[in-house]
Design a protein that fits this description.
403 residues; five-stranded parallel β-sheet; alpha/beta; 23% helix; globular
């Protein structure tokens, strides 16, 4: 059978699954496409969950397409549907309602689920997690002026929710287990900046703190300190949804490992988005990439390969975060080399560049989007650079591209 005539089932109707479905049609795929999602909502953009949905006067979720547009593409979209079984030999997936969907090619875009904090299970205090649209809409209603909100986890989600909560008049405390905010990035300069950014907006920040338990009045930390709170939001990471991959016989301990074209070790089975474990040149290891750009672009490349046009994807990881009036962008592996800081951290406009063996492997920009455009090209191109040039504040960063 021609790849363009194959019956394709996509499990997961989030950013990756939806963009893959679109890309299949754009690549000329003529076979059936069924897009299956657990949520009741139509496919939507995820970055808005911790940003616009919480902040805007009227929350109007940004949908990837309206129902009629999915129909116009001849894509069968099944919302509120959960895939519970997959058989690679029989080439079928089974839904929770007992229905079976046959396929020739299968795309796993199952994403991730939030990592839950055992210490707060069955807590007398309201404890929330933010993963889907329903979570965001419910949290929005709870962020009322004067409410005391404890944010457990100083990563991207926690910090963006902190920004939104303070903007809505809440009193915010951030508890981070590591010794700095956004610890996964590994940048001391960014950690210092974020500490100042949030404390200047009256957020209380506790680094090196862990939650022992909750009471009806707040959170008790491991060192005995007590954080008064009316609500706790937990953002301590996610884990890949790999049950179907395991049923298909795939090794999915840390995600579903894929080639640069999105193919898994099983014939006709592909994976895309947050669940896919990819090789990162800048990190020099296999890893899952949990961001909007990868969910969209890696999924599009994978869809093209499924349609018979082999398309490799090896762009360095890149994401952004909007907090208050600050724009923070990160590319590659900022913690993987020697850090060079350009600009003024205290003034809130600077660039951090990570250099390893004469190559830029990562970078951070704060309120400096033009510099990020250059850094993304540098990390992707692997052009050799001189540290002395980058350390010279008079040296224009874009000149490194011409070297």
């Amino acid at each position: 059978m021609s790849p363009q005539q194959a019956r394709i089932v996509i499990v997961g109707a989030g950013q990756a699954g939806a963009r893959a479905a679109e890309a299949l049609r754009a690549a000329g795929h003529r076979g059936s496409i069924i897009l299956v999602g657990e949520e009741e909502h139509l496919p939507y953009e995820r970055p808005q969950l911790s940003k616009a949905i919480l902040i805007d006067r009227d929350p109007n979720p940004t949908l990837i397409r309206q129902s009629r547009e999915w129909n116009e593409l001849d894509i069968a979209l099944r919302t509120s549907s959960r895939v519970v079984a997959a058989d690679g030999q029989k080439r079928i997936v089974g839904l929770a309602n007992g229905q079976e969907l046959p396929f020739d090619c299968l795309l796993l875009a199952t994403g991730t689920r939030v990592r839950r904090l055992i210490e707060l299970e069955n807590a007398p205090l309201p404890v929330r997690y933010l993963r889907g649209m329903g979570d965001a809409l419910a949290l929005r209603e709870e962020l009322q002026p004067g409410r005391r909100v404890a944010l457990v986890g100083g990563g991207v989600v926690g910090l963006e929710v902190a920004s939104a909560a303070i903007g809505r008049g809440c009193l915010v405390t951030i508890v981070e287990k590591a010794d700095r905010l956004l610890p996964q990035i590994g940048s001391a300069s960014l950690g210092r900046y974020l500490q100042h950014l949030h404390t200047s907006r009256d957020a209380e920040i506790i680094c090196g703190g862990s939650v022992r338990q909750a009471t009806s009045r707040g959170l008790e930390l491991g060192d005995g300190r007590f954080i008064p709170a009316d609500l706790a939001l937990v953002g301590v990471g996610v884990e890949p949804v790999t049950e179907l991959a395991r049923q298909l016989g795939l090794d999915a301990e840390r995600g579903v490992r894929v080639t640069s074209t999105g193919a898994t070790a099983a014939d006709g089975i592909f994976a895309a988005g947050d669940v896919a474990e990819q090789w990162s040149r800048s990190h020099d290891r296999w890893m899952r990439v949990e961001n909007w750009a990868n969910a969209q672009n890696q999924a599009i490349a994978t869809a093209k390969s499924m349609a018979g046009v082999s398309t490799a994807y090896d762009a360095p990881p890149w994401f952004w975060s909007d907090q208050y009036d600050a724009n923070i962008q990160v590319v590659g592996n900022p913690a993987g080399g020697d850090e060079i800081v350009r600009g003024d951290v205290a003034a809130g406009r600077f660039v951090s560049i990570s250099v390893r063996d004469g190559e830029v492997i990562g970078g951070i920009t704060v309120n400096s989007a033009r510099d990020m455009a250059v850094l993304r090209r540098l990390v992707a191109s692997r052009k050799p650079v001189r540290k002395s040039d980058l350390e010279n504040p008079a040296f224009e960063l874009k000149r490194s591209l011409a070297a």
